[in-house]
Amino acid sequence: MSTATRQPAAQPVDRKPATMGQALGRALRDAMADDPDVHVFGEDVGTLGGVFRVTDGLAAQFGPDRCTDTPLAEAGILGTAVGMAMYGLRPVVEMQFDAFAYPGFEQLVSHVARMRNRTRGRMPMPLTVRVPYGGGIGGVEHHSDSSEAYYMATPGLHVVAPATVADAYGLLRAAIASDDPVVFLEPKRLYWSKADWNPQEPDAVPGIGKAVVRRRGSSATLITYGPSVPVCLEAAEATREDGAEGWDLEVIDLRSLVPFDEETVAASVRRTGRAVVVHESPGFAGPGGEIAARITERCFHHLEAPVLRVAGFDIPYPPPMLEQHHLPGVDRILDAVARLQWESDYTESPGSAEGRGGGVV
Amino acid sequence: MSTATRQPAAQPVDRKPATMGQALGRALRDAMADDPDVHVFGEDVGTLGGVFRVTDGLAAQFGPDRCTDTPLAEAGILGTAVGMAMYGLRPVVEMQFDAFAYPGFEQLVSHVARMRNRTRGRMPMPLTVRVPYGGGIGGVEHHSDSSEAYYMATPGLHVVAPATVADAYGLLRAAIASDDPVVFLEPKRLYWSKADWNPQEPDAVPGIGKAVVRRRGSSATLITYGPSVPVCLEAAEATREDGAEGWDLEVIDLRSLVPFDEETVAASVRRTGRAVVVHESPGFAGPGGEIAARITERCFHHLEAPVLRVAGFDIPYPPPMLEQHHLPGVDRILDAVARLQWESDYTESPGSAEGRGGGVV
Amino acid sequence: MSGVPRLPAPQPTHEEVLVMTVLEQPGAYAPAPPPSWRPRTDAGPLLPDTEPYRVLGTRAAGRREGSGPEAELLRRLYAAVVRGRRFNEQATALTRQGRLAVYPSSRGQEACQVAAALALREHDWLFPSYRDTLAAVARGLDPVEVLSLLRGDWHHGYDSPGTRVAPLCTPLATQLPHAVGLAHAARLKGDEVAALALVGDGGTSEGDFHEALNFAAVWQAPAVFLVQNNGFAISVPLAKQTAAPSLAHKAVGYGMPGRLVDGNDAVAVHEVLCEALDRARAGGGPTLVEAVTYRLEAHTNADDATRYRTDDEVEAWRAHDPVTLLEHELRGRGLLDEATVREAEEAAEQQAAKLRERMHQDPSLDPTQLFAHVYAEPTPQLRDQAARLRAELAAGEETR
Amino acid sequence: MSGVPRLPAPQPTHEEVLVMTVLEQPGAYAPAPPPSWRPRTDAGPLLPDTEPYRVLGTRAAGRREGSGPEAELLRRLYAAVVRGRRFNEQATALTRQGRLAVYPSSRGQEACQVAAALALREHDWLFPSYRDTLAAVARGLDPVEVLSLLRGDWHHGYDSPGTRVAPLCTPLATQLPHAVGLAHAARLKGDEVAALALVGDGGTSEGDFHEALNFAAVWQAPAVFLVQNNGFAISVPLAKQTAAPSLAHKAVGYGMPGRLVDGNDAVAVHEVLCEALDRARAGGGPTLVEAVTYRLEAHTNADDATRYRTDDEVEAWRAHDPVTLLEHELRGRGLLDEATVREAEEAAEQQAAKLRERMHQDPSLDPTQLFAHVYAEPTPQLRDQAARLRAELAAGEETR
Ligand SMILES: Cc1ncc(C[n+]2csc(CCOP(=O)(O)OP(=O)(O)O)c2C)c(N)n1
Ligand SMILES: Cc1ncc(C[n+]2csc(CCOP(=O)(O)OP(=O)(O)O)c2C)c(N)n1
Ligand SMILES: [Mg+2]
Ligand SMILES: [Mg+2]
Questions:
Q1: Which cofactors are named for this entry (chains A, B) (predicted)?
Q2: What is the dihedral sign for C-alpha B328, B334, B339, B345?
Q3: Of A270, C32, D70, D173, whose CB has the highest number of CB atoms within 10 Å?
Q4: Per-residue pLDDT band at A117 (split at 50, 70, 90)
């Protein structure tokens, strides 16, 4: 199985503004050019170039057998991708929107995620499932789900969510090169986000499973990924500019939820002593629960306050006119930071806490 | 919509040993007798009485239009149940095994869970989805999944898992009477568990959403549900008998994961100061993460140690000959209790913890 | 369900056992063939005709002049397609004015939309998809309520149980099993109710289509499935969607009749649907109808159809326009004077104007309603969250 | 894939556009019909015959005596069904001895199992379900490895890429799209490979069946679908599963040929499958074959079939036993002497004895292997968990 990745070009070329959508398209194109086993398929990915135009031009360049419009059936797309992977191809499929991946859930959970394990490594599933995901673009019902909790709870899947143009390219290349299935969550509202970037010499991105500290800080750590990364950075800047509280917030972009980079997160929280997990997906049984629990297990004696969570409400995603009330924004993040018990250091007098009784220690 | 539940009979009758499977079957029978809108259907539930015989006798008693064998299609079962609920029926469907509910995931997430919200209450979904679930019965692949993390992460669903014969009856009656959809997880390996019980005068069980303290204790709280409840009780008894450690463990049976009874759990942990969450489902992004995070948020200053989790490994469910290594057992639970930092009270000297730097307080 | 006409008690559904389909064959090995071998159901009547059924402009229409379709129905259909066309235009205009989040127009498919609505009796149910706003409006629902999903103020705006129109369904084909379940429930209750479910050509590829049709046939549910084959699923043409002779040929595989009809011929669609619905209500089981039509606009206002189809193709279909076809027929039969035309157009314009006006008013929304209907009773967690949002909103009010 | 025979470059799959299926109809309104209206594919050849195809014991077999099926094939099939029958008996016995977690016997379906295995060429792939252990064994795989899933030592025991037999698949119909994808991939690579996927009558109701067949037809994938219609899905008889004239009638709805065959006639099944596989390999696209057969045993050893069917029915099918049918034919044609019978039975007995012996040895299992193949590289969390389990095991060793 090829794991070839594009080599940097010889002479440096200027960086120009590129959108995340363009970087993703470029990643697909480069992966297809480098490895004839990479096949892209899904609903409307061929002639149309995908409803978000990420696959634009691929069918023209590589022909309809390499970039293929399929019948409208998500289980069929994932199921045939499994078969193609069994024959040595490296399928990259698109689920048109987050909520439209659900009809393929059975294939994803029972086969994509388990085939390697079932066959003791004999049948790997080098399959990338691209999912335009999350809200904030005024989509009507079923077009704005954050479904990562389902994928995280499924052993055998990698779950990746880029937040920057450079990561979009680098992580998608890594996902396609991976011999394991990757659910690749593309934050819809970042498709049009821009950064200076050079497709000839794409920034190096470490492999899947490495978080990155996007902003250094000392007061508390914001832990986030995907669409909430820019929001957290904005919150961190806001509180600095604001000055009043004098918080210097560290922001960690997880990049991948599975594998989860405990080391980077734990090191940061040990330093800052406080943490808030931020994501768009509903809070209850969402990614934040796992992350907060894990941090607490690893960093309990370093914590000045419980790890808090700022998440979407525990409701079906709201209609377009109300979504701004649902999405975690700067204010809600800073409110949570404010609740990180800056005033008193309760932990110094554990005996005084009310309501405890019958302790054995 | 009827919410009638069976009234206790006039004269007391002796309690006799009954299995959980029998109590579930009785609950279905009584619900069908009390309310003609209750319809039971699914694969093999009619003539055969279900592969676990829970629906045995219902087709004979109520006819094939009230207890119906369906074609073999889980999305079809859930999807037609939605339509039947739209017309005012109260469908109770069976997914033959946990992992075979996945083909119906789309209907469950996009419609069963959301129809009430979508229609602002005009189209409730009084639908019960019975799922024989979990491992420990030597089932081959796909017959032992613990899938509750998926359902918990889906707003609009109630998620219930009984652990006793009495609760099996009472909670299933409550689920069927509920005007909301309930994913009713029946621990397969408890189907044959027995208790003295009187079908004429079934024990009162509070409505969905109430946890129960199954064993009072003062040292630490074990928080669990469904198939792990007897294991936790056994662990609690073992350590008492064992005597060495002198732990007196409290055991909470959550009964329902959604709604989650924070009050009962928080009150216990505030008292004991220590907690371990125990479940069979994989640990990563499983129920334990949410529960531990929530306890920590609510009880941070009462905790002598981080809330620990004992869960299935982060792997696809193992084959029968290896499942005993995967399932949380008494030893693993007591190991976790032992790691609850009984020796030293770290929390009294937070300044001394290594690795913290750049604190702002 | 009160006021619904009652049927005689339903036939036992599962008792009258259909059996294995192997015929005895004369052969030397023969011990008596197993008792469950019986002659099969005859497939012939389930197969669609080789040509889509048409009435308008055909000799068939000419022949019918004496008996039917009567002038009254033709005029009703005409008025409705004229209104429908104008409704589609107005809704598309509202997207440009920022008053709809998105609009998937049924321009070109008005005959199907209107015929579907008019074929239904009072107690029948309609199961529309996102493209079928017009069918709901033609059934008499408030257009503003129907457009709620696409406006974005809520996921769904009208009273479904009251109007007997299920919510516009976005996940493709997922509404089909709902229609089957509802129709089956009605039959079990002895109500004379049929369900008509709409789906696109693309939607027929989904597993839910298959499961729904199979359940319907096995249960003999009074459900009718209308596939509006408009040639495309967004950009994907029918040829990449199926290799079948026609989508109506899928019916025989479920054991129900398949019917093929010209979807731009409102009279033909209406007739075929009425027949199928009558059969369904009478206990004759489900029908699959494929209506061949064309989406004249892009998939939605956000789509660029020039990326995947030629102007020529669109032009050719414009020449087969459902409104023109009906108008031509009426004129040819002397049923359309200028007054009737003017009347229809004015009614359409009035409806559009009223819609425009109402849609230009901002809906008043209460964000805390987001928590009200997740469950019958909000969970403690949802109550907390609602309280927090209320506090935020109050704080926002203050700083304003 | 090395060593696979190469095909001429595949035909463009999506370019040769199948078009909308509306025919022009002479009518008064006619503007020229839209350009995409062309005559449809003819459905006729896709429909199954009205009777299941048979060879054994029919005049057809008699007529063939000169040309084929040759004695050699008959003898091979005979030896294989005898071995197959014995294998089923042995495996069922192993459940009683606690050596298999469960066994879904294919007793009564040996003709299908064996014909499927023998119809395949070396480079073809087989996609079996949980009931198709025998097909894999008849293809030459190690029975102990094939039984791994049902023994419970691992989920899957044989080398799938090496044997070109996909893992026995438990979730119904989910293996069908795999077969389509693999066949499509092989075709894209220019390899002359076909995939044969097995599914039950119950499995045809699943959405995955529908999606797989549709993809196969649209892609013209070299895949053949063999439905073993054994009359039941656990307790649910065919009549509650489908109302179709036959399951083979589903084919026309995808645009592929549907064939109906007597599933207890090994020669007929073999012939129909060979034909379909040849056509597939030659680029002629997929086929759906329905083999009408009967499950003589309960669903699995854990099932009680008396709850849902009568002894009479079973007895009647016993009289149509696939082994007897074949034996009778061979005898009638003078192709079976006692030596051949003895030889076949001894071979069967030997295979069974060896299986029994090997299955009575406990497999040696390393629980920490549970973490080895979840991913190519275990995550840090899995490494931790493996270490913890290793420690537990070591502690357990000590206390022992
Ligand atoms: C399950 C699902 N998958 C994907 C989509 C995204 N999507 C919306 S409309 C559409 C095309 C539908 O085509 P068709 O069924 O022919 O209906 P039409 O839009 O032509 O009316 C797609 C792919 C969806 N809504 N639901
Ligand atoms: C998706 C799915 N749902 C349910 C089951 C449980 N189940 C196992 S076998 C079976 C019946 C299958 O019947 P059929 O397809 O006719 O195959 P047969 O067992 O007769 O060979 C059922 C319902 C399953 N394995 N997969
Ligand atoms: Mg369409
Ligand atoms: Mg069967």
A1: thiamine diphosphate
A2: positive
A3: D173
A4: very high
Residues D355, D374: one domain? Answer: no
Q: Nearest ligand, CA of residue C299?
A: 1
- Note whether C275 and C383 are same-domain residues: no
Alpha carbon distance B321, D358 (integer Å): 17
Identify the DSSP state of A189: G
CATH number for the domain spanning B163: value is 3.40.50.970
Task: Name the residue of chain B whose CA is nearest to A356's CA.
Answer: B271
Q: Strand (E) positions, B201-312?
A: 212-215, 220-224, 249-253, 256-258, 275-282, 308-312
> What part of C 297-336 touches D (C-beta under 8 Å)?
312-313, 316-317, 319-320, 325, 328-329, 332
Question: Band of the pLDDT at D274, cuts 50, 70, 90?
Answer: very high
Please indicate whether, in this complex, the C-beta atoms of B107 and C174 are within 8 angstroms of each other.
Answer: yes
Give the CATH number, domain containing residue D117. 3.40.50.970
* Residue among B51, B313, B320 minimizing CB distance to D385: B313
Distance CA D30, CA C325 (A): 9
Task: Looking at the structure, tell me whether residues B70 and B171 fall in a common domain.
Answer: yes
Last residue of a domain, one of B174, B197, B220: B197
Residue of B155, B272, B286 with shortest CB distance to A153: B286
- The structure tokens listed for B348 are 């009294």
Same domain, C254 and C381: no
Does the pLDDT value for residue D24 go beyond 70?
Answer: no
pLDDT score for C65: 52
Closest by Cβ to B64, choosing from C15, C215, C376: C15
Same domain, D377 and D239: no
Same domain, C178 and C296: yes
Tell me whether D188 touches chain A (CB under 8 Å): yes
Domain that holds residue A304: 212-348
Into how many domains does chain D fold? 2
Which subunits have 3 or more CB–CB pairs within 8 Å of chain A?
Answer: B, C, D
**Interchain contact, A332 vs C374, CB within 8 Å:** no
Confidence of residue B242 (pLDDT cuts 50, 70, 90): low
| C261 within some domain | yes
pLDDT tens, C4-44? 777 665 444 433 333 333 333 333 333 334 335 454 568 88
- Looking at the fold, whether C317 and C390 belong to one and the same domain comes out as no
Cβ-contact D127, D180 below 8 angstroms = no
Using a CB-CB cut-off of 8 Å, the residues of chain A touching B305 are 300
Domain membership flag for residue C287: yes
Which residues does C339 contact at the CB level (< 8 Å), separation at least 6?
none
A39, A143, A279, A326: the catalytic one is: A143
**Structure confidence at residue C50 as a pLDDT band (50, 70, 90):** confident
How far, in Å, CA of A174 to CA of A154, rounded? 20
Of the residues B170, B197, B224, which one is the last residue of a structural domain? Answer: B197
> Within this chain, do residues D161 and D89 fall inside the same structural domain, yes or no?
yes
Tell me which chains share at least 3 CB pairs under 8 Å with chain C.
A, B, D
pLDDT band at D49 (very low <50, low <70, confident <90, very high): confident
C296 and C386 inside one domain: no
In degrees, rounded to 5, the angle at the alpha carbon of residue B281 between the alpha carbons of residues B185 and A207 is: 140
Instruction: Tell me the whole-structure pTM to 2 decimals.
Output: 0.94
Active-site entry in B39, B111, B142, B143: B143
Question: Is the Cβ atom of C172 under 6 angstroms away from ligand 1?
Answer: yes
The answer to whether position D108 is within a domain reads: yes
Interface test with D, best of A114, A119, A180, A261 (most D CBs within 10 A): A119
Residue D347: pLDDT above 70?
yes
Contact C20 D231 (CB under 8 A): yes
Considering the domain architecture, whether residues A137 and A184 belong to the same structural domain is answered as yes
* pLDDT greater than 50 at residue D317: yes
Q: What is the ipTM of this complex?
A: 0.94
Domain with D382 in it: 367-399
Scanning chain A, the segments in alpha helix (DSSP H) are 20-34, 58-62, 74-86, 105-107, 115-118, 148-152, 165-177, 228-242, 262-272, 287-299, 323-326, 330-338
B95-113 pLDDT per residue, tens:
999 999 999 999 999 999 9
Quick one: average pLDDT of A41-47? Answer: 98
Which of C235, C250, C304, C383 to mutate to test binding with chain A, by most A CBs within 10 Å of its CB?
C235
The better pLDDT of the pair B5, B102 is held by B102
User: Which residues lie across from D226 on neighbouring strands?
Assistant: D198, D289
Instruction: Answer yes or no: is A110 within a domain.
Output: yes
